[in-house]
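Anyone opening a protein record will find just a pair of labelled lines. A complete record is shown below as an example:
=====
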Amino acid sequence: MKKFIVLLSIFSFLSATNLDLLCVLTAQTKSGEDTYRIEPGDLLEVVILGEEELARSLMVMHNGTISFPLVGEVKVAGLTTDQASAVLAQRLEKYFIHPVVSIILQSPTLPYVSVFGEVLRQGAVEYQRGLKVTDYIALAGGPTPAANLGSVRVVRFQYGGVAAKNVHNINVARILREGDITYNYELKSGDWIYVPRRFTINWSTILSTLTLAATLLNLYITYDRLNE
């Protein structure tokens, strides 16, 4: 009898411990979902309770919207999935009584940052959260010898309320030289970087032009003397 009571006590303790652990893990998972902000390129699953024909998977467009039947484009970039669900539900109230909407993040699609100009490997670089301008230039192979790092153009897209495009000229050379990271912005999926070519004097072309001019001048002088 005592053995049975001891075993029952151990089982109860383990069950309670596992339940507490499950609650903690569930809370952490829920917290992660609540804090994630939707970005362009994300794949969302949209479900309307009792309206199975409207359930679908939607890609968040570059302008931060999804296109849903009846209501058209809905701005979701920058929102959590719960906030996006509430926005869509409000739009659907014209057609349904108290619609219950659930938006689930299926998977962030493979996003990218475009790097052009004087880098060794131009093109799309896989987006990674937290990386900044200098990181993406490095991932593109680094600058070429002709790169002008003093005036790198960065185009950043923002989706808070109204999609906006902000263009910045960044002195990457100063960032690398002095460690001043004030303007070393963290980039988002779809942003662009353009590294321009450094202005250089082509002495070969200049000397060739001067030589040609001197030759023509000499011919003119010679012709003028012959006609005297």
